[in-house]
């Protein structure tokens, strides 16, 4: 049965590579332009100031002392700028002389490659959990063809690398709890911590998962958690604060400095459309769960994951520590998103802020598959899978990447 699972991996990797590489964005869009502006400014002029960049016309811009900066966290842009400098040195291509090739390269290293890494490690994880066979194969297929993150992997964004980091971090944490030396040695603990911390610098919600992973490991081995995992996790977080201080003169993330968004002719001084919404919270919560940006309406198989997590915790099953390590931060993140946000992430397909957690939820879809083998269960899985496939296939539009209204918006709510 390992051969069958290996064939499934080859097919899923091939399809994922074909979709992401063929639909890589060749120009920037509303969400991606500010990040690309920082990458270009750092690589070309050695500054975080994006004035003068060809991508500086962006809504995600703040003004400090009369100069413009991206509002996005800095670590991903710094890493992308470093990779671009190597690319430019080797090829002679630049944003000024060859903008399409340069944009495609940055989108590849920040989107497509992390996504393909995710597919591979998801395969490794389901093999670790369930062994080769039916569960691992079906779980991998459902993940590969129902994950809306595939569409986001065609453009520079923080969600794809954050999701990849969290998945690999949790994979290494799981091996650290369940494998003996030397399979799960010091390197596992260090890398798990480092990737959890790195995910937090890409997507601040990732910090909730990093804390959860730390608790998950602490209950197994407090000493190694304190001496290995936590210092490794702190390193990228410290780099984030240092870069924030260098770029904006403050340790506070730009997201927490609302006054910086309010300047003459700034978009956020007078936002429009979805960014100007102020819906009642019960409507907002409905839409991020089951509505036009719904976690469960866009990817219905997550209903199976939720069932599996709840049942595992209620029955105190053998994977209860893993269920708590994933389920608790997912619940907390959804609550914080519902309370602290109001625009669904702007014009985008699906609840993009939860992409970082989706690979972890797909593990519990596989757990549900492992528990249920009847014909009716497979029919239910197939129906939910097909709905999710339709939603996921709609995300990577060739001309807009994921930056358009979802299929639920267009075909059910009639919003274009």
What is the succession of H and E elements?
HHEEHHHHHHHHHHHHHHH
Total strand count, please?
2
Average residue pLDDT: 92
Q: How many structural domains in the coordinates?
A: 3
Helix content: 55-70%
- Helix count equals 17
Give the low-confidence spans.
none
Estimated share of beta-strand residues: under 5%
Q: Looking at the structure, what is the overall shape?
A: globular
Strand order of the largest sheet: 1-2
SS-based class: mainly alpha
Evaluate the radius of gyration: 21 Å
What is the makeup of the main sheet?
2 strands, antiparallel
Could you give the distance between the termini? Answer: 45 Å
Give a topology summary.
Elements: H1 2-22, H2 33-45, E1 61-64, E2 67-70, H3 74-91, H4 99-130, H5 134-146, H6 149-152, H7 159-178, H8 186-202, H9 206-218, H10 222-248, H11 281-289, H12 295-298, H13 302-314, H14 320-340, H15 358-371, H16 375-393, H17 407-412
Antiparallel strand pairs: 1-2
Helix pairs in contact: 1-4, 1-5, 2-3, 3-4, 4-5, 4-7, 4-15, 5-15, 7-8, 7-9, 8-9, 8-10, 9-10, 9-14, 13-14, 13-15
């Amino acid at each position: 049965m390992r051969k069958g699972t290996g064939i499934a991996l080859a097919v899923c990797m091939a399809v994922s590579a074909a979709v992401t590489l063929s639909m890589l964005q060749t120009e920037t869009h509303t969400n991606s332009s500010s990040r690309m502006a920082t990458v270009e400014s750092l690589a070309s002029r050695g500054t975080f100031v994006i004035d003068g960049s060809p991508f500086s016309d962006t809504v995600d811009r703040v003004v400090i002392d009369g100069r413009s900066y991206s509002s996005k966290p800095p670590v991903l842009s710094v890493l992308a700028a470093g990779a671009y400098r190597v690319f430019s040195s080797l090829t002679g291509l630049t944003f000024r002389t060859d903008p399409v090739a340069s944009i495609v390269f940055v989108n590849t290293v920040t989107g497509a490659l992390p996504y393909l890494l995710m597919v591979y490690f998801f395969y490794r994880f389901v093999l670790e959990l369930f062994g080769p066979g039916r569960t691992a194969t079906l779980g991998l297929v459902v993940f590969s063809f129902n994950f809306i993150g595939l569409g986001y992997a065609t453009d520079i964004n923080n969600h794809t690398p954050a999701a990849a980091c969290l998945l690999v971090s949790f994979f290494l944490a799981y091996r650290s709890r369940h494998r003996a030396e030397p399979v799960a040695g010091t390197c596992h603990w260090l890398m798990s911590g480092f990737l959890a911390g790195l995910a937090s610098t890409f997507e601040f919600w990732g910090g909730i998962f990093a804390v959860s992973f730390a608790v998950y490991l602490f209950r197994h081995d407090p000493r190694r958690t304190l001496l290995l995992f936590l210092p490794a996790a702190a390193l990228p977080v410290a780099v984030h604060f240092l870069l924030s201080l260098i770029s904006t003169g403050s340790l506070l993330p730009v997201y927490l400095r609302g006054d910086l968004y309010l300047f003459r002719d700034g978009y956020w001084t007078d936002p429009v459309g979805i960014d100007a919404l102020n819906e009642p919270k019960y409507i907002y919560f409905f839409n991020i769960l089951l509505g036009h940006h719904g976690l469960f309406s866009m990817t219905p198989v997550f209903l199976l994951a939720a069932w599996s997590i709840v049942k595992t915790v209620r029955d105190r099953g053998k994977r209860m520590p893993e269920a708590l390590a994933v389920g608790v931060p997912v619940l907390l993140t959804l609550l914080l998103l519902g309370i602290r946000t109001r625009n669904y992430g702007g014009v985008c397909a699906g609840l993009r802020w939860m992409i970082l957690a989706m690979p972890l939820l797909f593990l519990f879809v596989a757990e549900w598959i492992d528990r249920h083998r009847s014909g009716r269960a497979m029919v239910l899985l197939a129906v939910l899978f097909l709905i999710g496939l339709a939603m996921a296939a709609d995300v990577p539009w060739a001309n807009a990447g994921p930056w358009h209204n979802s299929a639920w918006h267009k075909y059910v709510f009639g919003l274009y």
